[in-house]
Amino acid sequence: MNDTTPEKTKLSWWRRLSGGLKRTSSSLGSAVADLVTKRKLDRAMLEDIEDVLLRADLGTEVAGRIAAAVGHGRYDKTISADDVKTVVATEVEKVLSPVAKPLVIDETQKPFVILVVGVNGSGKTTTIGKLAAKLSAEGRKVMLAAGDTFRAAAIEQLKIWGERTGSPVISGAQGSDSASLAFNALTAAREGKLDVLLVDTAGRLQNKAELMKELEKVVRVIRKVDASAPHAVLLVLDATVGQNALSQVEAFHRTAGVTGLVMTKLDGTARGGILVALAEKHKLPVHFIGVGEGIDDLAPFTARDFAQAIAGIES
Ligand SMILES: Nc1nc2c(ncn2[C@@H]2O[C@H](COP(=O)(O)OP(=O)(O)OP(=O)(O)O)[C@@H](O)[C@H]2O)c(=O)[nH]1
């Protein structure tokens, strides 16, 4: 028996995603079920439904639209929890579909430079490792730049991912300048005719001005070597942070020009609803979701699966 068929793989990450989203979906599902039992739909019930959606981090616009869609043609009728879940899934899918976009590697850019940014511990280094595995499995020559010079452990962690994925790693001493490390790595990747250069950066809080300035410098220095680079700037967001993700997106977008998002830790006690609010507000592409710490635990983002998991509907 082959355990790695696409269906099996999909099922396993789906289980982890819907398991992880339980905090959102079961609270959505059970709260909705509690609300609709044996009552006819009226304004008060719709307001209660909207409250549940707001508590799940979906944001005011989307919560309002879903409540209106639930109310449409159903006033004074008894409705079931499944009816509400179906409307939630449909409306959430409408918001997510336009942002669910794969990461496209432009083959004419050699190397295609991907800068990975985000706050401390969001999962940048792990995501780089998983991405390196994916891209090399597709036949690309990948190089990693250990631009998180702040933490010695981060450099070591990236080296381990380099060994696991057969990707060369360019690193410097702890505390060395991350912009010059990025410069050296890009020069080396060019000389070595690598296809993709993945650049790690130190985790920084979005409200620390001097650290954000340092990130700006990394981008500036990369542009000195290749004016079109970085070709992608991925912001890695930890799903468990909830509302704080909104200000992270704003600050990192302003500083580094984010081109796409990766949301990690959706296998944990995640609050995935925030991704819906982000999609509604910023409309940035969402490329991948992280559903575990292993090398294969990075899944392409698909709007329908995510919407159904949020609504608590079994796939
Ligand atoms: N459960 C789970 N854990 C994850 C996921 N992605 C990353 N992690 C874990 O989260 C922790 C932090 O991940 P890192 O990749 O070190 O995060 P980082 O953003 O590079 O951290 P800094 O170097 O401090 O900025 C590690 O223990 C990872 O194994 C995921 O999708 N699911």
UniProtKB/TrEMBL annotation:
Amino acids binding GTP: 118-125, 200-204, 264-267
Question: What broad class of enzyme is this?
Answer: hydrolase
An MF annotation (GO) of this entry: GTPase activity
Its membrane topology: Peripheral membrane protein
Annotated keywords:
Cell membrane, Cytoplasm, GTP-binding, Hydrolase, Membrane, Nucleotide-binding, Receptor
Catalytic reactions of this protein: GTP + H2O = GDP + phosphate + H(+)
* CDD domains for this protein: FtsY
Q: Which domain of life is it from?
A: Bacteria
The free-text function statement in the UniProt record for this protein reads: Involved in targeting and insertion of nascent membrane proteins into the cytoplasmic membrane. Acts as a receptor for the complex formed by the signal recognition particle (SRP) and the ribosome-nascent chain (RNC). Interaction with SRP-RNC leads to the transfer of the RNC complex to the Sec translocase for insertion into the membrane, the hydrolysis of GTP by both Ffh and FtsY, and the dissociation of the SRP-FtsY complex into the individual components.
What is the official name of this protein in its record? Signal recognition particle receptor FtsY
Q: Give me the gene this protein comes from.
A: ftsY
